[in-house]
Write a structure and sequence with these properties.
One of its GO terms (cellular component) is DNA-directed RNA polymerase complex. This protein is an all-alpha fold. 63% of the residues lie in helices and 2% in strands.
Length: 253
């Protein structure tokens, strides 16, 4: 059951999306990067609710999904209503990001981190390179990273009164794997892209094969990239420079 407060940022964003859903439409268009015989994206004019359903269907190829998102991002950069639309269209991905970034927090603390996730998504829409693939995944990763960084800051400096701070143990997520990855990026052990790769394939449900296919590279390329990053991460963990008292899974295919 959803126990988020009514004022939770994503819930408010979903209400704003619903208000726009029937009056804002995405018309079919053939993107510049589509083959000469390529179908328009989307195939017919759709209101926002239908666009979201269409984007989420399992049979939609990642190239067409990216082409649609390039249009959505371009519109969102120019019009506020389309930024609201972009947030709503990415809502399933944003909810997944929030679940990971707020695990174990009470409602008030979770709402603060949720706001950071949402702000991170908006920044990412404005900054993401439209030539990249798997655009919505990249937007989600940046949004989640914003939430994780905010939670990390709170865990390191919760702002408790001095007498409480001296006696209280750090609250979760002290030592959470996502935060270890953030620490490793900050320390220069791995890059942000490598942290995303490890996080998605070790901590989430994305397989290396699926990720390689979506990125348009060979499986062995992604496998080697992750292996090298994990070797550096394991050495840093063993040396005690980051993530004391926790481990990130770095074994498996």
């Amino acid at each position: 059951m959803d126990t988020a407060p009514a004022s939770a940022p994503l819930r408010a964003a979903e209400r704003a999306f619903t208000d726009l859903a029937e009056r804002l439409w995405l018309d079919p268009a053939t993107p510049d990067d589509a083959p000469a015989t390529g179908a328009p994206v989307p195939p017919v004019a759709m209101d926002l609710a239908r666009v979201r359903t269409w984007l989420l269907q399992s049979g939609l190829g990642h190239r067409d999904r990216d082409r649609a998102w390039r249009r959505i991002i371009t519109l969102a950069r120019a019009e506020e209503d389309w930024m609201v639309a972009a947030i709503g269209l990415a809502m399933p991905a944003l909810r997944a990001a929030v679940r990971r970034a707020t695990r174990g927090l009470d409602a008030a603390a979770a709402a603060d981190i949720e706001a950071e996730v949402l702000a991170g998504f908006v920044r990412a829409v404005g900054e993401v390179n439209l030539d990249w693939t798997r655009l919505v995944w990249r937007l989600r990763c940046r949004a989640q990273r914003a939430g994780t960084r905010a939670r990390h800051r709170e865990a390191r400096d919760p702002g408790l009164p001095e007498q409480v701070a001296e006696s209280a143990a750090p609250r979760p997520p002290w030592g959470h794997p996502d935060l270890v990855l953030a620490d490793a990026v900050a320390a220069g052990v791995i890059t942000a892209a490598e942290a995303q790769l490890i996080g998605e394939t070790r901590l989430a449900a994305t397989t290396l094969g699926r990720l390689a296919a979506d990125l348009g590279v060979e499986y062995k390329t992604v496998h080697k990239r992750r292996h090298r990053a994990e070797a550096r991460l394991a050495a840093a963990l063993a040396g005690g420079g980051i993530g004391a008292g926790v481990s990130v899974p770095t074994t498996g295919p």
